[in-house]
Amino acid sequence: MNRDFKNMTIVFAGFFFMSLFYNTLAPFITTIKMTYNVSNDIIALLPSMIFFASFIMSILGSKIMYILGLKKSLYLGFSFAIISSFIIIVSRSFYLLLIGYFISGFTVGMGTLILSTILSLLSKKYQKFSLANAFVGLGGIISLPIDKFILSRGILFNYTYIIHIVIIGIYFIYAAQLKGIQNDTDKASNGKSPFQLIKTPMILLLAIAILVYEGTEIGTGNWTGRFLENFYGLSKLEVPNVLICFWSLFTIGRFFGDKILEKVGRLKFVIIAVIMSIFGIIIILSGKSIFNALIGFGIMGISMSLIYPAIQGYIIREVGKENVPAASSIITVFNNFGAAFLTYCVGFLDQLVKVNRN
């Protein structure tokens, strides 16, 4: 098997298992709240804590990968998932659980940084950024029926993490086949640091675009349900149909997006995608039929799906191979900062809206 192809599959598997791991939390939020008898304000800390830990590790990770190398750094990142899983499994207090989920954020930060850097150091033929992100989405989709099965059988949510320990153990064995990357990283150590690279106006502008995009994606995920209920008057049973339409097209777009980006051009597609998203919003707001919602959110799903891979791929290919680790660090830091900060903002606005309604 071609070495770069094998390395690419290791990256895809890493993104998939990492997504499967951190997306396990969302369906269990209500269960955790009831199990540990905590308030809405306290339970709202969980997602933000994960993103905050991820943000911290994405900064530290840029230093760690030069010290340990990419392969050992990858093992370290996924080791945090095993440590946090053990803590979550044995936790009998909410604050110990909080520590467990905080450590899980280290996996997201380090894992995203190292996997993205490895993918960026492959030959251009195998730099499938859109497909890599599609495996992230696939992990999120598959985590839902697993969590649903656990809840429907009355199994303690903590025990779900036994599955993750086993899966990550298997991934360690597969990742041992990662070869031919270390030397590239040694050469890249002569490149610019993230602080030097971010001073480039174009890189800074695109990094900010990633931050804003992350906020848009989080906002769509968190607010669409309430919007559909309030604006369209849809029932809670009808809302998932629209959400499935959005996320299905979003994931499909990422699976086939690399060929589109190569033909159209990455920055050109970002401009087209923004225009398409605006068109989708106009359709959504132009009527109150469920067909408006399905078509509008469908267009937004397709258009938004490739914005992040397009910006990510453009940055990586423009900076030169010696600056790839620094560029990956910038992308990951701004992505995680956007997630941590904007997740908190969305949660705060949600609580504010509830207070004003009451």
TrEMBL record:
Coiled coil: none annotated. Residues 7-358 form the Major facilitator superfamily (MFS) profile domain. It is a multi-pass membrane protein. It is found in: Cell membrane. The chain crosses the membrane at residues 7-30, 42-62, 74-95, 101-122, 129-146, 158-176, 197-213, 269-287, 293-315, 327-349. Keywords: Membrane, Transmembrane, Transmembrane helix, Transport. Its main location: membrane. One of its GO terms (cellular component) is plasma membrane. GO terms for molecular function: transmembrane transporter activity. InterPro entries: MFS (IPR011701), MFS_dom (IPR020846), MFS_trans_sf (IPR036259), MFS_Transporter (IPR051788). The keyword Transmembrane helix applies. Belongs to the major facilitator superfamily. PANTHER family: BYPASS OF STOP CODON PROTEIN 6. This is Permease. It comes from Clostridium tyrobutyricum DIVETGP.
